[in-house]
Write a structure and sequence with these properties.
membrane, transmembrane helix, single chain, 2 domains, about 130 residues, mainly alpha, 5 helices
Length: about 130
């Protein structure tokens, strides 16, 4: 069961990236671009229709709305465009990731947050 859920999550992730690419592809008709971009924006947005802190139903929109939106958007994108975008998404997913670069970005954000907090403290204290 766990492997089935992982496979399903992998398909959702792949199709989200594929739809992002399809929304930017000139061969995709504008209604499909609009729906694809909306679904991708909702899937990646930290703002949900139902906040995640609400028990059970908080995650319901992520589990129901996103897959339904992906299904509709995939059906609207021409097959050959979707096939090309899925192939490109697979290539992008296979790219190596740099943990050092990630650590550098985290340190930059922490430094910026610390500096902002210090400046705010100085402004309020003085």
């Amino acid at each position: 069961m766990v492997s089935g859920i992982r496979q399903w999550a992998g398909i959702i992730k792949r199709d989200t990236l594929s739809l992002y690419l399809a929304a930017r592809d000139p061969r995709t008709p504008w209604p499909a671009k609009l729906i694809a971009a909306s679904v991708v924006a909702y899937a990646l947005s930290p703002i949900d229709l139902i906040p995640d802190f609400i028990p059970v139903i908080g995650y319901l929109d992520d589990v129901v709305l996103v897959p339904i939106g992906l299904w509709i958007a995939v059906r609207l994108v021409p097959r050959e465009v979707m096939a090309d975008c899925r192939a490109r998404a697979a290539q992008l997913s296979e790219r190596p990731t740099s943990r050092i670069a990630a650590a550098v970005f985290v340190l930059i954000w922490l430094g910026a947050a610390t500096a902002t907090g210090w400046l705010a403290y100085q402004a309020l204290a003085g």
